[in-house]
Write a structure and sequence with these properties.
CATH superfamily: Alpha/Beta hydrolase fold, catalytic domain
CATH architecture: 3-Layer(aba) Sandwich
Strand order of the largest sheet: 1-2-4-3-5-6-7-8
CATH topology: Rossmann fold
Length: 212
């Protein structure tokens, strides 16, 4: 794995967050990873977030992961999804400032992180990949639904938080949106992480990145 750089960056409301950056040796894309719910044990090291951070750079995706406010060494406190959207926006700006402007940038989130990712529509974002987003805490979905940039939803067939059918119905009719249901998977994708990593890698390297 490429060397990991520890970072700290500030949000628009002045909260300092911790992050880690891993540069791909030959980058074709970049990605910000948004972790699951801070009040239920979510952090940038949790489960699939760790798998993605280890594997994406090897496939040419420079990757930044960060902790939402109040998690581990990030300052601040839980803000009910409001300040957390600012956290994502600041992470996008930080990564965009570290890579060439020609490198497509994906916003990737799992669960609550997926909702937060779908809520940030920065023009520098090339596309969104949301893993099991409950769509409880997402905002601005009306604008996202008509946005022509690619969106991919990775859902668990047996998701116990919000069913794949429910999410699929809400996203039906969204522009440039595809849905992938992982057979037998729960919200936490235990034993199915490989399929999720492959789906995100494919999105970053083929859906938003130019063909190599």
């Amino acid at each position: 794995m490429a060397p990991i750089e520890e970072l700290r960056f500030a949000t628009a409301d002045g909260v300092e967050l911790e992050a880690e950056l891993c540069l791909a040796p030959t980058p074709v894309a970049a990605a910000v990873l948004c972790h699951p719910h801070p009040q239920y044990g979510g952090s940038m090291r949790a489960g699939i977030m760790g798998d993605l951070f280890r594997e994406l750079p090897a496939h040419g995706v420079t990757t930044l992961r960060f902790n939402f406010r109040g998690v581990e060494r990030s300052a601040g406190a839980w803000d009910g999804g409001r300040g957390e959207r600012d956290d994502v926006a600041a992470a996008v700006g930080t990564l965009a400032g570290r890579v060439p402007s020609t490198l497509p940038l994906a916003l990737v989130g799992w669960s609550f992180g997926g909702d937060m990712a779908l809520s940030v529509h920065d023009p520098r974002i090339a596309g969104w990949c949301a893993i099991a987003p409950p769509l409880h805490d997402a905002s601005g979905l009306e604008g996202l639904a008509t946005d022509p940039r690619p969106k991919h939803l990775v859902l668990g067939e047996r998701d116990e938080v919000v069913s794949a059918e429910q999410v699929g119905r809400r996203a039906a009719g969204w522009a440039a949106t595809t849905t992938e249901v992982v057979a037998g998977a729960t919200h936490f994708f235990v034993g199915r992480a490989r399929e999720v990593v492959d789906a995100v890698t494919d999105f970053c390297t083929t859906r938003i990145a130019p063909t190599r």
